[in-house]
Amino acid sequence: MKQKEPITRNSSEITKKGAKVAVSDTSNIDEATLYDRVAAIIDHRKARAGAYANREVTLMYWEIGHHINSTLLGGERAEYGKRIVATLARQLQEKYGNSFDYTNVRRMMQFAARFPEIEIVAPLAQQLSWSHFTELLPLKSDEAFMYYANDAAVRRLGKRELRHQIDRRAYERREIANSNLTDESSIPFNVFKDPYILDTLGLKENFKETDLEKAILTELGAFIMEFGHGLTFVGRQKRFTFDGEDFYPDLLFYHRDLKRLIVIELKIGKFKAEYKGQMEMYLKWLNRYERRKDENAPIGLLLCTKASRDQIELLELDKAGIAVAEYWTVLPPKAELERKINEIMLEAKERLARRKSLSSFTAYKQIDYFYEPKDDANE
Q: In this structure, are 133 and 112 located in the same domain?
């Protein structure tokens, strides 16, 4: 009978046939690191489980709403349908709890009626909870609904943050900024807003540009939140020298999604045409000396107390890669905010209509210029 080789053990290795096999030395375990890593595993898996549960709940609510809508034939029998829904909600609430009360069941129906195709709902349901959708449902515009839904999904906004964006009319302010851009614009659509609401900076009356800049840097997170997704701070008062003279752009950011630098200049008071030349020089210098090969051309934003939008349209700043927007340091009461935004929206629509009319007139004149009528006498 063959005799087994002796095995020698110690705290750090096992020796067998002259070979050494390492084992854990419990005396050197970092217990804090162990706890942190295990806790991270738990948090990660719980978050995934929560996201999965949210998705299934949202899809369940959509399916319930879709089925009820289909059964009631699109609400052709309104009064009868209300009684049916009220009875159904009461039965569901008794068995499944308050999540199925009459109000929430009506929300399910509204949700499914607004988006009858589950292919639209399913991707959003992976990132948004039902509480997000309850904030979105009162919005009248499908475009606004999708804007806020996508914004909440991309930036991972909670219900309170989403409501904050809706209350501040972020979608309408983005559309106002878009209305300032032409088809020949060097600025992409959906990048800026107009106006910006900077009420979190805590500025007092008669503040200076330096006060505004310092306040933005102090509340940089809130400032970037107001701007949207993808913005990264690069620096302030970045000095560059050209033709023996020093220049200092106020704020410099990088937009990761757009892959381009963004210069922000802060101005107190009304927009002035002379600001265009200053910003153009900043952008040309950055384009020549700071732009990398894989980046797009820099763009600029002039933040002014008053925008002078008709003058901005006349100067065609967007073709030079320059946007102008107002900023408000105080958030107006809800009714006043709505009135102001609606007024600016109306002015923007009028400018768009005028622009289209001028474009059509110019095209007609060009056609008319080259049109040669037949000479009946020569026929």
A: no
Residue 269 carries which DSSP code?
S
pLDDT at 342 over 60: yes
175: burial class by Cβ within 10 Å (0-12, 13-18, 19+)? buried
- Residue 321 near residue 186, CB atoms below 8 Å: yes
Burial of residue 141, with CB atoms counted within 10 A of its CB: 0-12 exposed, 13-18 middle, 19 or more buried: exposed
Q: What is the DSSP letter of 6?
A: P
Q: How distant is the alpha carbon of residue 88 from its chain centre?
A: 38
Structure-token pair, residue 14: 């096992």
Pair 103, 151 in one domain: no
> Do 315 and 247 have their domain in common?
yes
* Total Cβ atoms within 10 A of residue 240: 15
Question: What's the chain's average pLDDT?
Answer: 84
DSSP-assigned letter for residue 333: P
Query: Please, what sign has the CA dihedral across residues 55, 57, 60, 62?
Result: negative
**Structural domain boundaries, residue 162:** 127-167
pLDDT score of 166: 95
* Closest CA relative to residue 108, chosen from 51, 58, 173, 49: 58
**Per-residue confidence at 373, pLDDT binned at 50, 70, 90?**
very low
N- to C-terminal Cα separation, the chain: 125
**Type of residue numbered 220:** L
C-alpha span between 320 and 300 (Å, rounded): 9
- The pLDDT value given to residue 73: 65
Work out the average pLDDT over 50-60. 86
Say what percent of the chain tops pLDDT 90: 50
Assessment of whether the complete model's pTM goes beyond 0.85 = no
